[in-house]
Amino acid sequence: MIKTKYKVAKYMRLSEQDGDKKESESIENQRDLIDNFIEKNEDLEIVGEYVDDGYTGANFDRPKFKQMIEDIENGKINCIITKDLSRFGRDHIDTGYYLERYLPSKNIRYISIGDRIDTIDQRGLQFLTFKLSYNDYYIQDISKKIKSVKKRKMLNGEYQSGIATYGYKKDDKQKNHLVIDTEVCDIVKEIFDMYANKKMSTIKIADELNERKIVPPAVYLDLPCTRKKSKNPNGEFVWLRTTIGHMLKNRTYLGHVIGGKKEQISPKIKKGIQKDKSEYIIVKNMHEPIIDEETWNKVQEKLNSFKHDTTKKYDYILKGLVYCKECGSEVTFNHNISRNKSGNISWEGNFAKCKKANNYSGLCKNKVLGEHILLRAIRDTVKKELESIKYTSKELKEIYSKAEKKTKNKIQKIDEEIEKKNKELTIISNRFSELYQMKLSKAIPIEEFKKEYEKINNNKQEVNEKLKKLQNEKLQEEKSKTTKKSEINKIKKTVQEFMNMENLNREIIEKLVEKIEFDKEKNITIQLTFSNPYINDSKVHKVSGKKYMQYSV
Questions:
Q1: What pTM does this model have?
Q2: Is the pLDDT of residue 126 over 70?
């Protein structure tokens, strides 16, 4: 008897994160074990090898595993072999899904050599649930041990981040220790000096560094996380004001090691939660400082002077309606409080700023604009349009008279067409009667009767469809007679309500304003949801989106 030949995928995985350090877990060892097993089984034929070296078994976000699944979908594989179950996966739920649901549904055989599991033999599945549970426990246990080791290293002042802070580099002689990077440490000193002593803002510092073509940290450190939006219009990576801000708050430059900023929620979830600053592990004087205490204190004092009360929430009445005319980005709103030398509030209010100008230096040169200026522009624009509508109202009688006359003529023509179609239906009805009489008197063969009946019936359906369409047209024309005037009155009522309001209402603004834009010269463009009615081919229309350039402030 010829055995079924199985197309085998050899799957191997290794991860130090899972505690796979011993020689027996090496990729080479896994490969040898699987190859030896296949040699002893004639029904197994190798068609692919998939190796995820350095990927945890706690999840299935692994490139070669994904490729293997894709090859299963394409029918290239019908058998998977691993050294043991933990090489396939350690997570109880996801591994169970693949072994108990996905693979059986695709008729895929799975063999775990070390666990003596072979899905071709149901007895091999008896210990599957137990093994999955054990592997899940193993992940939790390893995770706790790794956290404990990392915390001990943090408390000892060992630098645990994978990449050194900009201005430093990893020490070749001492593990988990930082030394000054002489290539860029002067840039760090200059940034602190510009902010502390030269009264430069983070945006101006970023602009200065970009103008001098100094390579930004993400590019210098060759980070894979550089984002498209950190590029300027020429496609070059740039310094960001946020980058400068983070550097000015980084206590690593004082010679301290800071750890424990984040904590992983679960070994199965990569994303961690940000911990409160009071929980950070800070070990002082572990490496040579770049910034002295005096400069650091000056910088922190200046940064703290700009802090706002983050507990208070402000309502931004124009949020989502305002856009940058320069780059098209949506505008963000912030609340600002200015104080004089005595500490008293000299000005308080909301202001708008382009997202790109606000966050990404060099991407947009638009300026800040006060919310009160935008609201004044809206009020004046709506007022102007209201006056236009009032002026037009004097002529509405004549306009509607002409429109009504045309509508009346159109309805009359529709009525004439409806009458014609009703006469056609009467003729068709008479033809049906004549045809039935001919059938009863046997004056026409049955086959000829059927053909003629179908022909008349099709004609009747066509006429009925045309009649229905005409009746709908008439209904729409009659409706338009009553709605045109009510539309204008509705707009006038809304606008009048808007003009009488002392404090503008978001709901009313949304009814009247479609979009607002402003440019770097502070010219404001307001796009309304309504406009002055006008005559076009003797028909009244409502124009949406008429624009006005109201201000240059």
A1: 0.44
A2: no
